[in-house]
Specification:
The complex is a heterodimer. Chain A is an alpha+beta fold. Helices cover 36% and strands 36% of the residues of chain A. In chain A, helix 3 (79-98) links the parallel strand 5 and strand 6 (102-113). In chain A, helix 1 crosses helix 3. Chain A is elongated. The N and C termini of chain B lie far apart (92 Å). In chain B, strands 14-13-10-17-15-16 form a six-stranded mixed sheet, with helices on both faces. Chain B has a five-stranded mixed sheet with strand order 1-3-4-2-5. Chain B has a four-stranded parallel sheet with strand order 7-6-8-9. In chain B, helix 7 crosses helix 10. The chains are: A alpha+beta, B alpha/beta. Chain A binds chain B through residues 27-34, 62-63, 74, 76-78, 81-82, 84-85, 88-89, 91-92, 115-116, 118, and chain B through 51-56, 86, 93-94, 96-99, 101-103, 105-106, 109-110, 113, 136, 139-143, 145, 468, 477-478.
């Protein structure tokens, strides 16, 4: 839990909330055509329950937020550029929403989707 | 017949009377033109950035992507348009930089696919290619954000498709899509609120427009290497003057805000201003225009008079740059006046972390300053260089920092001069020691005196914690202000004023007489004065002095004596 003291009391932000922000940001990021689970078991449960944090893992310790994201990228794009722009987009959006620094965004490319072959 | 290499820098009417379908070589020239035009306008696109992310300069990213595309075809004699556009697409893909670069490469990829196996491109094929480019680009994202380069790509495709009803000529179609792209870019703020808030249009969309416009400009024989007079968003105007770069004839800076009576004819406006001065900038926001110009002496009112003829002036400011420049030069020269030494006298060298502290040391009579402090320890060589040329062989070094004492002591072995290091661990200790310097005195006595003086002063330092930690029973969170008294951590606080007062209390300030605050480079004079006032209230018996220390990282270095 990510918390901050205010004069009135504590504000806590769960990793899940952060993951939702990251998920939305990733979906709007160019070149990312899908998010995928870290492992199969999780994948099966997430097919059943539509999860807004699918494919995102948020770790939080000692004021440091680190985000892992598992993505599928469009075939035919430059993967390096897409990955670096998705991590920048997530960092920017999470920091803007939370006002707290994001230490790391690790992008795991789990697959490519082929819409058109050249 | 002479074979003359066609230079794209000297544009000429490409097809004055008849219009050809586009083959590989013609398209290559068009791509090269668009790169030149994009590069010319690179900065204008860069300033449109909304997101402060690294690697986020859209103009630069698009130029690099197009550059890679161009490199791929630059030496190719390929006349087949299908093959040539595939090379363009491949180059753009390999060189894609940033979001806009990736999307651009996808547009080219689709564009090329539509031209597969075609020798030349006519109007119908151009429309098909644009259509494919748009489709491919849209496939790359789950939830497309409108008001971006994608929207502009979509709008030009729509325009191209509808223009087929009137013309089959690819050049006519190009002309129409350039107009459509321009309009589409102007609509982006209506679709994407974040652009509206920042008062800009979408950078990627603008870049795409410039690429297309570059092609059209080449066909029309217009120059590609001179940027058009551009109006920037007000927020993007950079009005801080770089005084170093001022040249003769830039004596006054004039900034005028105005409402034009009619629509401003911007190229004409620029042309008129260029006759008056240099460094012209024009910004616009909510119907207000802001003009910035540097003009020579005696004509500082000319631009104001001129703008009055165009509309209502709401604000005008004139600043004398010469005077500012002279003041700065003057300060630079007068900042450090070292005490000259004669043979046989004692020279002192002090290590100082900021210009203000260096000045105080200079006024106390040091013969040289070595820049350095907590996070920037000077090398032995730097210390050595500071006194090697002084005309005396008696030297005293004040390291003023625990970490620099050893370095200073190492210097003793490296010189034939007689060097003594006074182990001062802080600025206030160094200054207290300097007070006792008698440069004509006996070295041994002077050193003993200076060493003794260091214990007369208490040193307080306030800085920001770079990580969370617990030391000496004090619990510190990253980003808090922490107070060190004689090098020991005594207090942490979220508030600089509380930290300062707490530190002074811990130091038993009521037993001392004089408090000197050296404030750092990261804190404003206003904030310092407010804190000094509070201290004066809390400690009415003590005298408070405030000095601009200019040191980095430390908000305050406090001498209590």
């Amino acid at each position: 839990m990510n918390s901050e003291n205010t004069p009135l009391g504590r504000v806590t932000i769960s990793p899940r909330a952060i993951a939702t922000i990251a998920h939305q940001a990733a979906r709007q990021s160019y070149g990312v055509v899908g998010l995928t689970s870290k492992n199969l078991m999780e994948g099966i449960t997430q097919v059943i329950v539509k999860d807004p944090t699918h494919g995102i893992e948020v770790k939080y310790d000692d004021q440091k937020i680190s985000i892992d994201i598992y993505v599928i990228i469009e075939y035919g794009t430059r993967i390096k550029s897409v990955a670096s722009s998705v991590s920048n987009t997530i960092k920017f959006n999470v920091e803007k929403a939370l006002g707290m620094p994001v230490e790391q965004v690790n992008v795991h490319v789990r697959g490519l989707r082929v819409s058109d072959t050249d | 017949m002479d074979i003359e290499e066609q230079s794209i820098h000297t544009p000429k009417q490409l097809f004055p009377n008849q219009k050809y379908p586009i083959d590989g070589q013609v398209f290559k020239t068009l791509i090269e033109s668009s790169l030149i035009w994009l590069r010319t306008n690179q900065q204008a696109v860069n300033v449109l950035n909304v997101f402060p992310v690294p690697d986020g300069d859209t103009g630069t990213n698009m130029v690099l992507t197009m550059q890679a595309a161009c490199d791929e075809i630059t030496n190719s004699p390929e006349r087949n348009i299908g093959k040539l556009t595939h090379m363009v697409a491949h180059g753009a893909l390999m060189g894609a930089r940033g979001n806009s670069g990736v999307i651009l490469s996808q547009l080219w990829r689709g564009f090329a696919r539509a031209l597969d196996n075609y020798e030349i491109m006519d109007g119908q094929l151009l429309v098909n290619a644009l259509h494919q480019g748009r489709n491919t680009a849209y496939k790359g994202v789950v939830r497309p954000v409108e008001g971006t380069i994608l929207t502009v790509a979509k709008d030009i495709t729509t325009e191209a498709e509808s223009s087929l009803a009137d013309t089959q000529d690819p050049y006519d179609i190009l002309e129409r899509i350039v107009t459509a792209a321009d309009a589409s870019v102007l609509r982006t703020p209506d679709l994407l609120p974040v652009l509206k808030e920042a008062g800009v249009v979408d950078a990627g969309g603008k870049g795409l427009f410039i690429i297309l416009e570059g092609m059209l400009r080449y066909i029309k024989g217009l120059a590609l290497d001179v940027a058009l007079a551009a109006v920037q968003p007000l927020a993007a105007m950079k009005l801080e003057n770089i005084l170093d770069s001022l040249e003769p004839g830039q004596d006054f800076e004039v900034v005028v805000d105005f409402h034009p009576n009619q629509d401003l004819n911007i190229p004409q406006f620029y042309e008129d201003l260029q006759r008056m001065g240099t460094s012209i900038q024009l910004g616009e926001g909510d119907g207000i225009y802001r003009m910035h110009i540097h003009v020579p002496a005696d004509s500082e009112y000319v631009p104001i008079q001129y703008i009055k003829s165009l509309g209502v002036v709401t604000k005008a400011a004139i600043e004398n740059l010469r005077e500012q420049l002279e003041n700065i030069e003057h300060e630079r020269v007068s900042s450090l006046q070292f005490t000259p030494v004669e043979p046989g006298q004692i020279a002192t060298i002090a290590v100082a972390p900021g210009p203000g502290i260096a000045r105080v040391f200079a006024s106390l009579g040091v013969s040289a300053i070595v820049e350095g402090g907590q996070t920037m320890n000077p090398s032995t060589q730097e210390i050595l260089n500071a006194f090697e040329n002084l005309p005396t062989d008696q030297v005293i070094i004040l390291p003023n920092n625990k970490n620099i004492i050893l370095t200073a002591q190492a210097v003793v072995q490296l010189t034939v001069k007689h060097v003594t290091v006074i182990p001062s661990t802080s600025i206030p200790q160094g200054m207290a020691a300097m007070m006792r310097l008698i440069s004509t005195g006996d070295v041994k006595e002077v050193v003993a005196d200076m060493n003794a003086a260091m214990s007369d002063v208490e040193t307080g330092e306030i800085t920001t914690a770079t990580r969370s930690v617990e030391i000496d029973g004090v619990n510190v969170k990253e980003g808090q202000f922490i107070c060190l008294l004689n090098g020991k951590l005594v207090l942490a606080s979220n508030n600089l004023k509380d930290a300062t007062l707490g530190l002074l209390n811990k130091a038993h300030t009521d037993h001392f007489e004089l408090i000197t605050l050296f404030y750092g480079a990261d804190i404003s004079r206003l904030e310092v004065d407010a804190i000094a006032d509070t201290i004066r209230k809390e400690f009415p018996q003590q005298e408070i002095e405030v000095q601009d220390g200019g040191q980095p990282h430390y908000q305050f270095i406090i001498s209590i004596e």
